[in-house]
Design goal:
about 325 residues, alpha+beta, Phosphatase 2c, domain 1, seven-stranded antiparallel sheet, protein serine/threonine phosphatase activity, magnesium, EC 3.1.3.16
């Protein structure tokens, strides 16, 4: 069982401080430095979840951007970390394969819940969640994502001809699984060569089957199990979607890298933040605020002024210089 796991998904929950729309957790210690957390609610029903687990040897951070209802994101916040812990124990340590297996197990277990709940709650088939995971363990950083939440690293680099300790730049560690990105759109189209309308431009953006922008998630079962979208029970709730096969996946992109003294902090956030701030602007905002300031809250307040919803983790390292 995981201990010292803080979950966030409601005003003032999980040890947070907040008002009606914005709440946060102050800077806390973890094995390699500090972390902070902030969430902004924009919808009448909060569909997002986040969590932080700390131990003497590792720190886990999760950001889950739900859509179509809160069921998927809430489920991920309960099950993903325990699955990682169990598989890591079985296989003798953490690895990219352990993380992939944990995502797969989370997806499969949620599918079973949807099947059991189907008759009484057919709308659960439309609940899904983007997932962004960051783990620091043994000087390694593991980042995994489904969907268009993003991890950005702030790192110091030396610049020829400049005095001092160099400048801090933004390095994006994830790929946005959003068909608005041409590479992702071509990837989806290549998997469905017999469907000329697999991705169409609808309501101002590119969408899979004119419905959803992200190509990977936990849940969204009606877009992964054609028999469910065709079922008359679901059609009483949602529009039927003509599918021959799944149009979304739950296969995460996983990155593993060794942490270096130049790596200063990591930002994990949903697309709501990145629609308002560039990678560089977010890194600059963290950099210009002293560590005593609640960095995640600062960005959360700036995002509130921009009218977005977002959920954000900020993890800072302490380096010995």
């Amino acid at each position: 069982m995981l201990l010292d796991c803080k979950c966030f998904g409601g005003g003032g929950g999980g040890g947070t401080v907040g008002d009606d729309l914005l709440w946060h957790i102050d800077l806390k210690r973890h094995a390699s430095g500090d972390y902070s957390f902030a969430m902004v609610q924009a919808n009448s029903k909060l569909e997002d979840q986040g969590q932080v687990f700390t131990s003497p040897s590792a720190t886990y951070l999760g950001v889950y951007d739900g859509h179509g209802g809160p069921q998927a994101s809430r489920f991920v916040s309960r099950r993903l970390f325990p699955f990682i812990h169990d598989f890591a124990t079985e296989q003798g340590g953490l690895s990219a394969e352990v993380i992939r297996k944990a995502f797969s197990a989370t997806e499969e277990e949620f599918l079973q819940i949807v099947k059991r709940s189907w008759m009484a709650q057919p709308e659960i088939a439309s609940a899904g969640s983007c997932c962004l995971l960051g783990i620091v363990s043994d000087d390694l950083l593991y980042v995994a994502n489904l969907g268009d939440s993003r991890a950005v690293l702030g790192k110091r680099v030396s610049v020829a001809g400049e005095k001092g300790n160099g400048r801090v730049v933004a390095e994006r560690l994830t790929t946005d699984h959003n068909v608005g990105v041409e590479e992702v759109r071509k990837e989806v189209e290549a998997r469905h060569p017999d469907d000329a309308k697999i991705v169409i431009h609808a309501r101002g953006v590119w969408r899979i089957k004119g419905i959803i922008q992200v190509s990977r998630s936990i849940g969204d079962v009606y877009l992964k199990k054609p028999e469910m979208s065709r079922d008359p029970l679901f059609q009483q709730f949602g529009t039927p979607v003509p599918l021959k096969r799944a149009v979304m996946t739950a296969e995460p992109s996983v990155t593993v890298r060794k942490l270096n003294p130049e790596d200063m902090f990591l930002i994990l956030a949903t697309d709501g933040l990145w629609e308002q701030l560039s990678d560089e602007a977010a890194v600059d905002m963290v950099l210009k605020n002293p560590r005593a300031v609640r960095n995640s809250k600062e960005i959360g307040e700036g995002c509130t002024a921009g009218g977005c919803k977002e959920e954000r983790n900020d993890l800072q390292r302490h380096n010995e210089d």
